[in-house]
Specification:
224 residues, 2 domains, six-stranded parallel sheet, alpha/beta, nine-stranded mixed sheet, 12% helix
C-alpha cells in the first residue's frame, strides 16, 4: 500500500468513527423519556436506567456519564425483591428528584429518591457516586433485609457548585452546602457545611474556606 493510500484509509476510518459517534448520540437523545420539565440539552450516556421520569425535574445542559441510574421509586419492593410467598413489606412513596442546571457526572452516578433529593446547579460528581434518601430496614435479624422494606425516607440536598469525589456514598437526611468538597471514598452520614472540605468514613470536616482571607484553613476541632 502506498503512503497516500494509507492516509486516505486513515481519514476514512476517522470519518466513520465520528459518524458512528454522532449517530449514537442522536439515538441516545431520541430514546430519552419525558421528564416533568423540558430538560433542554440533557445528555445521559448509555447504558443507563431511568425509573419514573415524570417525578423528575431536570435542568438545562445536564450531562451524566455511562452507567448512571436515576430512580424516583413509587413503591417497594420491585419484582426482584418480592418474597415468592408474599412475605415482604409493601410500601408506596411520593418521590421528587430535582437536578439543577449544568450538573455533571463522569460515570455511574446512582440517585435514588423515595421522598426528595435535590441537586442544585453546577454540582460536579466524579464516578461511582451513590445518593439515596432511604435505605433497607434492619428491624429484625431473623428476616432477610430485602423483605423488611425501606426506612423512613429523609430528604437530601446537595448545594450549588459542590464537588463530590469518586466512590462517595451520601446517606439519607444529609445536606451538603454550596461549594463544599467531599473527598473520594467518603461516607456522608452528616451535614457538610458550605465551602468546607470533608473526608472519611464517616465523613469529617478537614478544611473550610475563609472568605476574608481568601484561603482554605484547617478545621482544628469538630464536634461530633
Amino acid at each position: 500500500m502506498m503512503a497516500g493510500d494509507s492516509d486516505v484509509t486513515s481519514r476514512l476510518v476517522q470519518r466513520l468513527a465520528a459518524f458512528g459517534e454522532r449517530t449514537k448520540r442522536r439515538w441516545s437523545a431520541k430514546t430519552l423519556p419525558r421528564f416533568a420539565t423540558p430538560a433542554n440539552g440533557f445528555e445521559m450516556a448509555t447504558p443507563r436506567s431511568i425509573v419514573n421520569p415524570s417525578a423528575m425535574s431536570i435542568g438545562s445542559s445536564v450531562k451524566l456519564g455511562p452507567g448512571s441510574e436515576l430512580k424516583a421509586n413509587l413503591r417497594y419492593p420491585g419484582s426482584w425483591l418480592k418474597h415468592p410467598d408474599g412475605e415482604h413489606v409493601n410500601q408506596n412513596f411520593e418521590p421528587r428528584l430535582v437536578i439543577g442546571d449544568r450538573v455533571t457526572a463522569t460515570a455511574s452516578l446512582q440517585v435514588v429518591a423515595f421522598s426528595e433529593v435535590i441537586i442544585e446547579d453546577d454540582v460536579m460528581f466524579a464516578a461511582n457516586v451513590f445518593v439515596a434518601d432511604g435505605t433497607h430496614a434492619s428491624v429484625s435479624g431473623d428476616v432477610p433485609y430485602k423483605y423488611q422494606g425501606i426506612t423512613t425516607p429523609l430528604p437530601i440536598r446537595i448545594g450549588r457548585g459542590a464537588w463530590i469525589g469518586q466512590n462517595v456514598v451520601i446517606l439519607p437526611g444529609v445536606t451538603i452546602g454550596e461549594l463544599a468538597i467531599v473527598a473520594a471514598n467518603s461516607v456522608v452520614n452528616r451535614d457538610v457545611p458550605a465551602r468546607t472540605m470533608a473526608a472519611g468514613s464517616p465523613v469529617r470536616s478537614i478544611k473550610r474556606y475563609d472568605i476574608v482571607a481568601q484561603e482554605w484553613v484547617r478545621v482544628e476541632h469538630e464536634q461530633t
